[in-house]
Each structure stands twice: as structure tokens, then as C-alpha cells.
Backbone:
């Protein structure tokens, strides 16, 4: 089993709190902060750095993490936008199957279409809920509210058996859970959580045939030759997934390429082992305190304890309150002492 390079982690992170809130926002590595500072300074000095090169480097890095060629990856700023692109591609009356209480960015664009048939099922029953006539299954790989992990192989098999496509949002999974984008039809993720990027960075992986998607919000960056596509209708859309690019948040991408490089250096398998071990330590401690957390991932939800979030924050322990539940998220910069500090606070 791969082990985490703790020396490298310590060189990149020095939080002043027990930060257990990556499911909300990941911490920025020092290399990322330095790169963004340099990018801002370059614009202030009137000599802007080539941050479009940073977009391409970040695209290539995410492609490697997802196991696909870079020409199948679109770069944007929001998962909701990419969900909207997929929703726009469906014919009127198409059936979309979603998980009950999934994150809104993953499901809401299907509802606002108004002419789609959207069904929900409990996460554990998604595969069984696929039926003839289902056009698309849209679900998060890991649930934002409580960290439960979808049975992606079962969902994929059920979808294929009924001729449906799959759309998987890896926003709460990419960075600790391996991403096999080839196993899905569409894969999306924001990068400001477990991938440790600045806000304003997201990715969409499309199939080789583009999945009959239409570039409904295409601007000049979606052109095959962007700098020749600035005025009037874009004459020729990019031949790759770049046709689905949003105009990029350049300062964010200037940092993102360095965050993604760090994830690659540390290795997702090593990060996953580290994160899961901390989560299991927390769950075991909670059991001794008489609590029953939701099982499944580095995101641990504890029913009924959400109201304690403000006092924990005052004590220097950062967690979330989600639907009345305390949500702790353990990532590569966390240690056993963070877990024990939280358990001690909860026992008091």
C-alpha cells in the first residue's frame, strides 16, 4: 500500500486550526498561493503572464487523474453549468434518474428544463431503479451531505442494460477516490474541494463522440482558433471537448495547475488510504461516545450534532453543519491529533 509523503505535505500546508472541512473548501498549497500571487503581480505590472497556458496544464493534469486524453476534458468554473449542458441535450420527455437529496448542482438543471421526467430514488437503490425508458442516470460519486459513496459499477451495469447514459459528479470524490472517466458517459467535478484548487475551476469529461452535446453557451474560447473567434458567430467550434469550455477564471487556473500537480505527486491511492484511516479512527471514537455516524468515506456525518459547529469553530476546529448533522471531512493535511482533538471536544 502506498504511503503519504508527510514531509511534502508539511512543506505545502501549515493550517492554524484543526481544519476538517475539505468537503466545503480544500486548503490551498503554498505553491498554489505563490503562483496566484505571481499571476496577480504580473497583471498589476502590465506584463500579464500567459495564464491560458495554465488552463491547458490544468486540463492535462485532470485528464491524467481521470484516465482520459486531454481532448475529452472541458475546463470551466461550475458543475451546474455542465449539468445544464447535459440537460439541454436531452429530448423533451426524457427520463432522468437522480439520487434523493443529491447536491443541487448535479440535479437542478434537469428540473428547470420543465419538460423532462425526473425521478428520484435512494442512493442505495439507484441501480435497481433504472428501467426501460430511462435516458440518463445522474448521481454524485460521493454525497455532499453525509459522504455516502455510490455503487458506480452497479449503476453503470444497470444503465447499460437499459440503454441509458450515466452522468457522475466527482466533486466530493476526485482527489481521494480514483476517477475512471472511461467508465462513465459524462464525468464532472469542481476542483476547490479535494483537489485543493482555487474556486472557479471545474472540469467535464465527455465521450469520444461528444455524447450529442450541443455547445449551448459557447463563446470565443470554444472556437477551434479562439483568437480568430472574438467577433460575430464562432465560425468553427473546437474539435475537442474545449468547445464546452467556459471563459476561464485565469487567476484560479494559474494556481490550479500547481494544486493538481501536487495531487499527482502524492498519489490518489496514498491520499485515499490516509484519508480513510483518519475517518475510521473518528468513527471508532464516536462509537465509544455512543454516536452512530454515517459510514463510507473520508466525509463523516454525525446525526444530531450539527448545532455544535459554532462552538467547535470557536475552539479552532472547523467542521460543517449539514441538515442538522455534524460533517467532518478528513484530507491529506489532517493528522491523528486532529481526530483526537475533535473527539475530545465532542466528549466534553
Residues:
Amino acid at each position: 500500500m502506498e504511503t503519504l509523503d508527510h514531509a511534502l505535505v508539511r512543506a505545502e500546508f501549515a493550517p492554524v486550526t484543526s481544519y476538517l472541512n475539505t468537503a466545503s473548501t480544500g486548503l490551498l498549497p503554498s505553491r498554489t498561493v505563490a503562483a496566484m500571487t505571481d499571476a496577480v503581480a504580473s497583471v498589476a505590472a502590465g506584463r500579464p503572464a500567459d495564464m491560458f497556458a495554465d488552463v491547458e496544464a490544468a486540463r492535462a493534469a485532470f485528464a491524467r487523474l481521470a484516465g482520459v486524453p486531454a481532448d475529452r476534458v472541458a475546463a470551466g468554473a461550475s458543475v451546474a453549468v455542465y449539468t445544464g449542458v447535459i440537460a439541454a441535450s436531452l429530448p423533451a420527455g426524457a427520463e432522468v434518474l437522480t439520487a434523493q437529496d443529491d447536491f443541487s448542482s448535479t440535479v437542478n438543471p434537469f428540473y428547470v428544463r420543465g419538460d423532462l421526467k425526473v425521478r428520484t430514488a435512494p442512493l442505495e437503490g439507484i441501480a435497481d431503479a433504472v428501467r426501460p425508458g430511462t435516458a440518463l442516470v445522474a448521481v454524485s460519486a460521493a454525497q455532499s451531505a453525509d459522504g455516502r459513496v455510490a455503487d458506480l459499477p452497479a449503476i453503470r451495469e444497470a444503465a447499460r442494460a437499459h440503454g441509458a447514459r450515466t452522468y457522475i459528479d466527482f466533486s466530493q470524490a476526485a482527489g481521494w477516490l480514483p476517477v475512471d472517466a472511461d467508465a462513465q458517459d459524462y464525468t464532472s467535478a469542481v476542483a476547490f474541494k479535494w483537489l485543493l484548487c482555487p474556486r472557479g475551476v471545474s472540469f467535464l469529461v465527455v465521450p469520444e463522440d461528444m455524447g450529442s452535446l450541443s455547445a449551448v453557451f459557447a463563446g470565443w474560447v470554444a472556437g477551434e482558433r479562439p483568437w480568430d473567434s472574438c467577433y460575430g458567430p464562432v465560425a468553427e467550434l473546437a474539435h475537442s471537448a474545449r468547445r464546452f469550455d467556459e471563459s476561464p477564471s485565469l487567476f484560479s487556473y494559474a494556481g490550479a495547475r500547481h494544486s493538481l500537480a501536487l495531487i499527482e505527486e502524492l498519489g490518489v491511492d496514498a491520499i485515499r488510504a490516509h484519508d480513510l484511516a483518519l475517518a475510521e479512527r473518528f468513527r471508532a471514537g464516536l462509537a465509544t461516545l455512543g454516536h452512530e455516524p454515517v459510514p463510507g468515506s473520508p466525509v463523516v456525518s454525525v446525526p444530531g450534532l450539527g448545532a455544535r459547529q459554532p462552538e467547535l469553530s470557536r475552539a479552532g476546529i472547523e467542521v460543517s453543519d449539514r441538515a442538522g448533522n455534524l460533517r467532518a471531512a478528513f484530507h491529506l493535511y489532517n493528522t491523528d491529533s486532529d481526530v483526537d482533538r475533535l473527539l475530545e471536544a465532542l466528549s466534553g
